[in-house]
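Morning - magnesium ion inputs below, output right after.
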Amino acid sequence: MHLENLRLINFRSYEKFETDFSDKINIITGNNGVGKSSVLEAVHYLSLSKSFRSNRDEEAIHFNSDHFVSKGTFVSDDGVRENISISFSKNGGKAIKSHGKLLENSRDLIGRHPVVLLSPEDIITTIGSPSGQRKFMNMTMSQVNKNHLSRLMSYRGVLKQRNAAINMAASGRQSYENTLDALEEQLGELCSSIWEDRVNFINEIFPEFQKIFNDLNEGKKEGTIEYRPSVSGTKNEIMEVFKLRRANDFNMGFTTKGLHRDKLIFKINDRALKKYGSKGENKSFMIALRLTQGKFIEKKTGIKPIYLLDDVFMELDRKRAIETVKYINGIGQVIITTTNYEEWSDKVGFKVNLIGLS
Ligand SMILES: Nc1ncnc2c1ncn2[C@@H]1O[C@H](COP(=O)(O)OP(=O)(O)OP(=O)(O)O)[C@@H](O)[C@H]1O
Ligand SMILES: [Mg+2]
């Protein structure tokens, strides 16, 4: 699967923008601030109906406008085309369309045209914050399993209700026992199945991740991923945890245990990357993680995802850059941004589609 073209209206710094892509390697070059990352952001919208830079869609609207449109044509490996458009307006909100027909919600879009993203912002959050780590798991699994996405959405809803019930109960405004019993039963069930999905996911990607990380580092370093769930076990066991935490949660004012508190621990040679990793080590760790993510999506769905690589070569030394380029060649459609293509173009032993912005 690949994206054939992209058209933007009032998106970030573009009033209008149009480009075609090749189904292999595309390189977007240009100076700082010309709008390279914005193009990747617009493609991300077409795949996942949201940005990777912000949770506020209005930030992507051109300063002088009240709406944006991102449109593109995806082509499957057997040649079937699908026109997707995402528009967002300050008054009307978001509309997702396939061939001009409105889709009911983002669940209908997610997974149809999967993407793998590697951006500097995302490296910081994924390595550094548990919420970024959970996002990595959620986005990967949601793109391959609609039930997982539905369970996550339900969990979010029920968690909100439990937090509201806790606050009502703590202020003595309501009898809460029955409400909490019912909500915790739902949370127990959702947590148990999502925990199981996460355990399986990490177990499944781990060998592939180790191999890629090893290759990128010439076998000199070992990268590991550990999953640290906040709760685990059967529905009943997890319900019990929620119940035991009630008094504590009343004090805190929110639900302190649950899959919304899960973590991943990334290590190089048994030392926490977050604490001890260099910039380049962080980067090569994330490259390995994202390439693994792509392989996982491909294995589960039979669709090669589109790789969006923002500033991927910055901070990499020559050897690692060459290893990365080798990996990228042949994995599917790749869109890379860079300010200094001239500096590493000699390392690329294959034809690329160069998109120069100014
Ligand atoms: N809503 C908006 N409306 C108009 N311009 C915007 C908006 N949001 C961001 N910009 C501008 O868009 C420009 C392009 O940003 P973008 O991040 O895409 O550039 P870039 O080419 O990736 O730069 P870099 O090489 O520094 O990463 C910036 O100058 C930014 O100020
Ligand atoms: Mg950029």
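Note: The mean pLDDT is 93.

O.
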